[in-house]
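Subject: for your reference before the review

Hello V.,

The reviewers asked for a structural picture of the protein, and I figured it would be easier to keep everything in one thread rather than splitting it across files. Below is the amino acid sequence we used in the manuscript, unchanged from the supplementary table.
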Amino acid sequence: MTLAGLLRLTERLPVAEGLTAESLAYSTLLAGPEFAAWRARSPRRPVPSHPEPVLLSREGSLLRVTLNRPQRHNAFSRDVRDGLVEALDLARLDPTITEVELSGKGPSFCSGGDLDEFGTTPDAATAHLIRVRQSAGHAVHRAAGRIRARVHGACIGAGIEVPAFAGRVEATPEACFQLPELRMGLVPGAGGTVSVTRRVGRWRTAYLVLSGAPIDVRTALEWGLVDACEAR
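And here is what came back from the structure prediction:
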């Protein structure tokens, strides 16, 4: 019910307002019994730190931004999110950067949010505030015309929600895409109800979330979730 109502809003709201609506819905569900039941079944493990969760390199006017937690399939941790937001703020503020390439090291572009961090914010209100202020999806959207996302392997949850804001998304032939949040009692929370909906429409977004089923590159191309299929 929350998803259906949310998609009706995010389909027509401006991006910033849509992200706020999504965050409010997500934070509400974080305090719900379905998420609590999933968290009880999924004990947290220690989250290993990484000294450089996001790598930056520059060649002339091109800024390369690379997710760098390959041992965790680039799971979208707080450190990855903050590093990505900082990198895109740099691109937004530096007019000499005319192109940004977003990619990931290792076997997957991004396996979604780091499950061991889910529900660790002290309360739902604080979670909402952080999600809105540190939205990687919004950061990508603000510089979308200059951003080319190159995705591969598993692109799960945030792994497609965030790059879907980019002006161009290129996927390798073996890439697959999935929005599995419902099984945790949640809805997409990294911007997917805004970004994916704008690419594939409300009904296909609802299918991806309600079924939790992965789709391959061929389907993603047909739907418009990605713009091209290219070898890595």
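For the response letter, the relevant points are probably these. The mean pLDDT is 93. The first strand starts at residue 54 and ends at 59.

Happy to draft the paragraph if you're swamped.

O.
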